Model the fold of this input.
Amino acid sequence: MAVTLPDALLARYRRFSLYNSPYRAHDGGCAVDLYPGTLRDGRTTAAPSPVSGVVRETRTVRAPPKPYAPEHDHLIVIDCDGPGELAELTARILHVEPTVSAGDRVSAGDSLGRLVRAGFFAPWVDNHLHVGFRDADQNPYRASGSLPLEPGVEIEPLAWDGTGEVVATGETYAVLDAPAHPDPGSRFVGIGADRSEPSGERAAPSARRVGGVLDGGLPHYDGGGLLGSARTSLGPVSLNGDRLGVLDGRTIAWDDVVVTANGKPITGLSLFCARDEEFGAKLICPDREFVVGQRVGVRIEHDG
Done:
């Protein structure tokens, strides 16, 4: 049974994702990445605790070797007493250099330390807390084994026609101004999947029905997820009339697809849930350069 992430937890963060990672700890949406910073302030170092409880242990752990990051990370293990049904579970938190120690009591929102980068990150990934939950008697050190998670908040799927204007860039990404959050700060939103697979010609945007919210790295990670109540348990999933893959439960196995921007391939799309005014499609493009103000059209094409 999935553990619900309550609004009291998620509302502390600008963004979250269950699937936007290549690591097995996220398989099936069994971990959540919590982003305190906005899309334009992705390197913030603030690390507010998602839970209240007592720190069981902190330790330094090995990370995959990458030329742009240290080969170590930090693990914080907290025995939770809240919020909500998280009480009596154990939280496993990564990517924070801790200023807390074993035996310390923390309240939700207290600083755990400083967000750091490690070899678990791709260059385009912003600073975040990686959090998983498991029963108190489970091994807290294994990467896999955490309980599946379910967002306990409203997530509004936004229709997107695949176009937008670049409003921010980094060395490996560009952010578009669309789709825009209809009411920033009020609720989480995400790019919505088409509710049913289109047949024949691409439907006009006004004729498409929007389903659940897409989550994951398309297609640079193996798969993604579909969040929110408007989803089915099995079947094809598409975006703006382009088929992405097949849904099983809430997990999507991507087809062999290529994301193009203005007709040329890019690494992919970063799909997540956000609640602030800077929401928009995030293009992962370490091999392409875009400039602020440039109009971009995105398509999903099947490779071969």
Summary: The chain has one helix and 27 strands.
